[in-house]
């Protein structure tokens, strides 16, 4: 049996996940936790399960807080209504990321992925998990931004570039510039590398919005929508940039 834990602060949602998991007889739900406090206590006092289904936003914080305080070697499948947490999820042993409402076929696919990571049924180390995850990386498809007291979802397909200014990373769309909660290094790990390229320390650009490229004296890129700053490809990145353009 594969010991499994559910972390979900909404009881109806927790019951729904448990019902869905009952369709998989090889899984045994050993605990259902509702908060960061419950999670830290339980994982501190019990043998860790092989598989964890965890909502991200809980009543007393983010479930990431649990595993930062009590590291686990188990695989985590995160469930949430938004995917702005994708980056941090995949830094904490996540093998999949299910957006609510969860569909049975998506759940089944996530469980099959878990099984493929454990062909022998044995546990693996955290480092091995990270290597497996790296090979099966999920890319960021949308970003949640805050506008005053409102939240807005921006599709990455709408973003011409990400850029840093005064230690804040912004994203640029046709309409306006939005601040984000990411660093450029973090974004470089989760953006689709076929679409986005790290031009220099300040900019990540999208191939969909390149308007012109000047090659002399430096490689300078003009985008359809960009901030006032000039975008120049770092000299040590020029070859990679040209390969990316034709790749």
UniProtKB/TrEMBL annotation:
Modified residues (4-aspartylphosphate): 55
Domain Response regulatory: 3-115
InterPro entries: CheY-like_superfamily, LytR-like, LytTR_DNA-bd_dom, Sig_transdc_resp-reg_receiver
Residues that span the membrane, as ranges: none
Alphabetized Pfam families for the sequence: LytTR, Response_reg
Keywords: Phosphoprotein
GO molecular function: DNA binding; phosphorelay response regulator activity
Residue span, HTH LytTR-type domain: 143-247
Protein name in UniProt: Two component transcriptional regulator, LytTR family
Source organism of this protein record: Chryseobacterium limigenitum
